[in-house]
Amino acid sequence: MATTTTTSLVAEISVQPSPFPAKSKTTSGLVSGRQTTITSINFTDKLLITISQAGRLSHWVHVPLATASADQIAPSSGNNTSGLGSVDSESTLLPRSDLTATTVLGGTKREEEVVGQTLGTVIGSAVLMKRAGEQRLLVLGLGLMDAVGLGREEFEEVVGLVLDVL
After folding, report:
1. CB 65: neighbour CB atoms within 10 A?
2. Engineering a disulfide at 40: which of 22, 45, 70, 165 sits with its beta carbon 3.0 to 4.6 angstroms away?
3. Where does the chain cross the membrane (predicted)?
4. What is the pTM of this model?
């Protein structure tokens, strides 16, 4: 019977900690009295944003930003070349009509799906207002405890927190 001896061929390896390869930002605040955490991770082909309460993520949507029309109003630039009159502060809160949010995971409750898709288009619009040439896919993960009960004020609080991480 032959006996084999194992010799360690692995040299001593030094492991060095390194930062996550994608730029990321996190913020948190209160929305409807609940601690809400927003995280943004910038990959080369995607912008991933998660909105979580109590560590929950239950609904995912994506919004292709590359399909956005180049002739839409860019309120942050102050230029209005659309011929639609002046840009007022109320219309800057409206989502762009050329963005479409699609549920990719979750969305089994129609009411929550509508809130998720609306948040997706509003956040996509906000991204394009800050970075007009953005071409990446926006992926939005939602974990709101009471998405259906989200009123205008809470909706604006969520969007405000997202703007902090963009």
Report:
1. 21
2. 165
3. none
4. 0.75
